[in-house]
Write a structure and sequence with these properties.
Blueprint lengths: L9 E5 L4 H9 L7 E6 L5 E2 L6 E6 L5 H10 L5 E4 L9 H7 L2 E3 L6 H16 L2 H9 L16 E5 L3 H12 L3 E6 L10 E6 L12 E4 L13 H6 L5 E4 L8 H9 L5 E4 L19 E3 L10 H17 L20
Parallel strand pairs: 1-2, 1-4, 4-5, 5-6, 7-8, 7-10, 8-9, 10-11, 11-12, 12-13
Antiparallel strand pairs: 2-3
Helix pairs in contact: 4-6
């Protein structure tokens, strides 16, 4: 793998919204001067280059499984496809593997804002913030609300990728005891993690958990990973925090657990159906915060996404191994789980 730049032009396929982005990055010197964006529409039209010249595609600015699939069909010489995003659950990974196309994702681009949301959620739950907000809105001077300290509480991380690792670092600074469930054995404890839990028996370590955090990819194996049996093992005061994918949680089981008072509450940024339907039973609960899949956003994300692609592109040109390479058989880049 690597680019032949003897012609001094490297064509990079992008969605229509990405053409000016690439030109701007090139003009600022972030991308090489010989890079030329090639517009590929969701209808398969390609503007600006011969199909045989396009070996690189960048899914920039917009999440579109349709555009991804179009690149697979329309670009016969494609060698490498990079996505700014992390999720792969809607992408034709089998087709990638059959054609030998390298696929890299944006793991790390959104870690900081997502990790901050997890910490905010844990703080809000511990300090009974939702009850205080309700009392304030009602004009009620309620001194029968009893907030707790975070120090000494226990957080269980499902997933130890870039988000999970940053959550562990932040949480440990607040005195939270972090245990992490990971599929891949590690020879050392990542910073902030007190205990690594084998994926096969993670349910055995739930009874004393205060915060269960979903920060892992959605795959066939992780679908409905958090389910009826999970909630049955949790404390009545424990909170679920999901900044990953909605399909990781059995929503019907979550609703029943909330109705029965089997868990303390939930902060949710991902759902099976999005937008969450107006009549969904997760709405309008005093102990549930619904976010519109927005925990990933911050103004700094754009810079991270462009810097990541730029560094990857230089590595590809120089024939060096790429980072964040997704294993089609797993559905994620090793290290995300």
């Amino acid at each position: 793998m690597g680019a032949d730049v003897s012609s001094h032009v490297l064509s990079v396929a992008v969605p229509p919204a990405g053409v000016n982005i690439v030109r701007g990055l090139r003009d600022r010197g972030i991308l090489p001067g010989f890079v030329e964006p090639v517009e590929v529409g969701v209808d398969g039209t390609v503007k600006g280059a011969s199909l045989e010249d396009i070996k690189v595609a960048w899914q920039v600015a917009v999440w579109s499984p349709e555009w991804f699939a179009v690149c697979m069909r329309a670009l016969p010489a494609l060698e490498w496809l990079h996505s700014d995003f992390v999720g792969t659950d809607q992408l034709p990974l089998d087709d990638l593997a059959k054609r030998g196309i390298v696929f890299t994702n944006g793991a790390g681009n959104f870690s900081r804002p997502m990790a901050e949301w997890v910490i905010l959620a844990a703080m809000a739950a511990s300090k009974e913030l939702f009850k205080f907000i309700h009392a304030s809105e009602q004009g009620e001077w309620n001194r029968k609300i009893y907030p707790k300290e975070l120090s000494g509480s226990i957080m269980c991380l499902l997933g130890l990728g870039s988000v999970g690792q940053l959550v562990a670092e932040m949480a440990s600074c607040l005195g939270i005891k972090v245990r992490a469930v990971t599929r891949h054995p590690r020879t050392f404890l990542p910073r902030g993690v007190r205990e690594l839990i084998p994926y096969a028996n993670w349910h055995d370590h739930l009874s004393d958990v205060d915060f269960l955090v979903c920060a892992l990819p959605l795959t066939e194996e992780t679908a409905n990973m958090v389910n009826e049996s999970t909630f049955a093992l949790m404390k009545e005061t424990a909170w679920l925090i999901n900044v990953a994918r909605g399909g990781i949680v059995d929503e019907a089981a979550l609703v029943r657990a909330l109705d029965d008072g089997r868990i303390g509450g939930a902060v949710l940024d991902a759902f099976v159906v999005e937008p969450l339907p107006p009549n969904h039973p997760l709405w309008r609960r005093s102990n549930v915060l619904v976010l519109p899949h927005r925990s990933w956003y911050s103004p700094q994300v754009e810079e991270r996404t462009t810097q990541l692609f730029a560094s990857q592109l230089y590595r590809w040109i120089e024939g060096k191994p790429l980072r964040n390479v997704v294993d089609p058989a797993l559905g994620y880049a090793p290290g995300e789980l």
